[in-house]
Amino acid sequence: MAPEPLKALLVDVGGTLVDDATWIEGERYEALMVARLREAFGTDLPWFALLSNYRWTESDAPGWEQRTAELVTTTLAEHGVEASAEEVERICRACAAPLSQVVELADGAHEAVRAIRALGVRMVICSNTLWRNDADSLRDWEELGFGDCFDAYVTSHDTGVGKPHPAIFERALAVVGAEASQAAIIGDRRERDIAGARAVGMRVIWMRPPEFIGLPEPEPDAEVSRWAEAPPIIEAWLDAGRAS
To answer: At residue 145, what are phi and psi to the nearest 5 degrees?
Structure first.
């Protein structure tokens, strides 16, 4: 059976749109987080540094539910600090530093995304995030020059669960009015991107990490090692859909 015409492409961020090797870490990252928290709260508090070491893996849970607010509240309580829901939200917004300050774009991402967009495919950012909500993601990608490329921005922070949970894929599909059979994802993670998208019936373009040897399970529909290879795959799928 011929595939349905491709209507939408979900786009992963870490390891896909941005180069994971370029994330700032250690003292530079901590200094940035502390500075942003200091600006948000108008003072310097001893617990600011506690929050600078969080990464997405620490917010994972067996059901992939988003636990950022719980982690912040618990961590502060362990150090004798009570935080209201409003203060936790202010912390999250402060810690959602613009992507342009913490990581670099993957080579060729901008040109390839624009080429895919020109093919008429609807595009959605679909990302597991610790601090960023959908609005932060919109801000980031507009600032990086992608404002007219993406139709929607779907984060685990606002969805309540992260990839590979079906709900985040379903939400991303819903906002662009596509069925899973009409959509694909481009991403680098085997469990989160490939297996998660496969489970809901989507096609997958795997952005192979430089260090990966062999093939992931389940196997993707297509594989690329750089962004320049992605537009021809999308165009071929569109042609196949029109011919069916």
So the answer is: 90, 20
Same-domain status, 79 and 143: no
DSSP 137-149: HHHHHHHTT-TTT
Low-confidence residues of the chain: pLDDT under 70: 1-2, 54-62, 213-216, 244
Q: Which residue from 165, 164, 142, 166 is spatially nearest to 153, judged by alpha carbons?
A: 142
- The domain tally of the chain equals 2
Q: 126 and 168 in contact (C-beta within 8 Å)?
A: yes
Q: Give strand pairing partners of 100.
A: none
pLDDT in tens, 39-68: 999 999 888 888 877 665 544 566 788 888
Total length of the chain: 244
Q: How many CA atoms lie within 13 A of 138 on its CB side?
A: 8
Domain end position, chosen among 100, 126, 161: 100
pTM of the model: 0.93
Q: Which domain holds residue 15?
A: 8-22+103-243
